[in-house]
Amino acid sequence: MMATKKLQAFPTFSVRDVLLRFVSPLLLLAMWIALYQSQALPSQILVSPLQVFEAGRDLYQSGELWTHLQYSLNRLLFGFAFGGFAGLVFGTLMGGSKLVENLCGPTYNTFRQIPTIAFIPILILIFGIGETFKVVVVAQAAFFPVAVATIDAVKGIPRSYHDVARAYRLSYVQWVKRIVIPATVPPVVTGFRISLQRSWVVLIAAELMAAESGIGQMMEMGRQMLRIDIVMVGVVLTGFIGFMLDWGFRRLESRLIQWKSN
Q1: Residues 33-72: tens digit of each pLDDT
Q2: What is the longest distance spanned by two Cα atoms in the chain?
């Protein structure tokens, strides 16, 4: 029985499933090549995939690509960790306390409707364009999806669970540890996954607007130099990293769902 459960924890993919996953990328690449060869757009606007590959290779060999990537990932890591943790704590308090909900609910629900990009000019005036600005932007982007998911998850805990907690006179810390965490892990992880996607997109946008390093700044410099191949390297890299981050969290999410069901 245990062996069966271990085998089920690792989903299997047929050869057909694996091949189908390459269909849309290959079709997109074929359309790109066909559009380039048709010369429907000027070469200053549309470059060939080979030029993009060569530009990426040159950036990698010079070390510039890794430097920009390192800056972006560091900002993402610190901002996401801070914003996600703050959203988790705030969401737990909001979902579990009527007092906190009444005190913070109106302000929270107002601010979460405002796009993160709208805060960028204000944050630039406050923090400048240094590292603090980028970390704060990412943290703000990460905060709200995690808070929303945590609030909904805590409010969705069955009333019988709370009755058990009151019967055993659990403290707040014990309530969080024994009731909230086991009951809310899967939906909260989903909130973290959405938060990470949003944080990555907002970070690149912030680097495009005001930064001295990072993938977004590399793309902006490529635009200013009319190096569309460098811009496309940034586009492809941004999409690939975003895909891998989402894939990793989806795997974690599926494992946690299996763990809860067992």
Answers
A1: 888 888 777 777 788 888 889 999 999 999 899 999 999 9
A2: 74
- Tokens for 84? 């996600």
For residue 203, the domain's CATH number is 1.10.3720.10
Residue 41 is assigned to a structural domain of this protein: no
Residues 6+ apart with CB under 8 A from 145: 87, 191, 192, 194, 195, 198
Question: Helix, strand, or coil here: 147?
Answer: helix
Per the structure, the count of domains in the chain is: 1
- Domain containing 133 equals 68-261
Q: Is residue 30 within 8 Å of residue 48, measured between CB atoms? A: no
Residue 37 lies inside a defined structural domain of this protein: no
CB 78 within 8 A of CB 199: no
Q: Is residue 141 part of a domain?
A: yes
- Measured in whole angstroms, how far is the alpha carbon of residue 118 from the centre of its chain? 19
Radius of gyration of the chain (CA): 23
Instruction: Calculate the average pLDDT of the chain.
Output: 83
